[in-house]
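Board notes (copied after class):
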Amino acid sequence: MTDGLISESALQVAICIGLTALVGLATWLKVRSARVSHDGSGKDVFLAGGGLSWLFVAGSITLTNLSTDQLVGMNGNQMLLLAWWEIAGFVGLMILAWVFVPLYYRHKCTTVTELLERRYGGRSIRTLISGLFLFGNVVIYLPAALYSGSLFMQSLFGSDLPVAAFAVVLALIGAAYSVFGGLRAVAVMDTFSGIGVLGLALLIVVLALAAVDFDMVTGVPAERLTMIGADDSPIPWHTLLTGMIFIQVFYWSTNQNITQKAMAAPSVSEARKGVLAAAIVRILVIPPIVVIPGVVAYKLFGDVGDAAYGRLVGEILPGWLSGAFAAMVAAAVITTFSAVLNSTVALYAVDFHEQFVGKVGHHWRLGAVVSALVTVTALLLVPVFQNAESIINLLQQLNGLFSMPILSAFIAGLLFQGVKAPAAIAGVLWGFALYATYTFLWQPGGFVTLHYIHFMVIVLFTSVAAALAFNRLALGGKARFIGLSLLRKA
């Protein structure tokens, strides 16, 4: 009996390693066949030389977002309500396609912060926003992706190995893609692995429902099945009318980790096709795969939190297919990690190194050094997320520290003319301080009980107001509302 278990486990591991290697080989062959010259420029390393077709733009956007943060974290809530994060993402992608993509191409941006510098006519706001993005990537996104992916692998294989061991393996492979292949390799791997991830994830949904005779309602509390969130739920229904839309605009339209892929196409029309394709996947495929397995897991195992998805997969899939799915999920973690790592290096190289150290002679070499430092830092922070009650809820709350203050800089810069860079900085700092006070002082102390998604709207609008007030009162500037006229020019 023991020999049989060992053989099955060995088969899972062998299939996982084999498929991971196969994706790597297919990626290498595709990247190698691309007839491009690698000159070590920022466009070469961070924008794939401007040569990504719409298919790879769509694949990279989808897999950069879809990692175990969603598969593990959202299913870990074990309720259908969390699907709203993905459904609302469709709106954010529409805004990226029709509003921001033309602006980024018109201003020939490598980073989203370049657009801010051009609008405000000052480098300081660009440096601040880049710093916030870098901090968020290194402290939040990268370690969270490694932790959630490692937790899944540990749950699936039932291994005695610590989460940290899985994290090291995933991080090293992800860093290798970014260091040796740049954005082109990341995007190609995203697309190849995405086909497998989405296909197998949908199969998990079908098999999970079959395991409960397609009845996931009986025995499951109503609050886990409703799409109308109560006031004490993770997403109260009224938050969909307030902060949810602004969260999506920030994440999909002004977030370097996502928009960098849309900026790597040869033209606006090609980039837009890729974003629209990603939006279709977002609305049709993603919602069921991030919530239905979690609800089924509740019916089968009870409230098991973030371990729900891995435990369910290990239960309903045959051994060889569990290994295949592990390979695809590992690929999703690896591509998310490598994509965010590539964006992190781009922000540092373009926005900091060239400004404060000197012109970069060869971005591949600089990228290797920065990637190594960032990877080690992310690995050291993985244990922090082990104490989180819910990965996805923690991430969304922490994102508020950066998302609304950063979005306020884009809104003030795009909708108003005559706002100076120091005023935008004042608005961002106000928003950061306000949300930090709310999160760490007011809410825990019971002084403010407003849901964090609602409070994000207050942070956003008061940040814009603070920027305009500082511009007028402290700098003597006169801001003029230009509405959407700038967007029409794009």
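Comment from the instructor: The chain has a mean pLDDT of 87. DSSP finds 20 helices and two strands in the chain.
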